Predict the structure.
Amino acid sequence: MKFTLVFPTHEATDLSLAAVFVPCLVWMEGANQLKNPHPQNPHYLRGDLQEIFASQNLRERLSDTSRKVTVVCHPTGHGTEEYLKDILFDLRDMGLEPIVVRH
């Protein structure tokens, strides 16, 4: 699996991040690689989402009125159900409300 996280933003902006595993976790925005948080470890680790938000100053792009985040699960890729559980944990830890959609 791989995951696309679609965040609520201000009307004039958009924020979608992809969690792809090639084979290590790489955070992508479109075709741009934002961060490979731990190239020596291929697994998603709790806190990886918070780390990308901090390193890229993404919090300021989020909407002030909605906390809902759509998490799209794509069937291809090296992600696992356990990684999904950890991503959902991290989203809730950030005060967001994830909605899971399976492609």
Summary: Strands lie at 2-6, 16-21, 25-29, 32-35, 68-74, 97-102. The two ends are 10 Å apart (CA to CA).
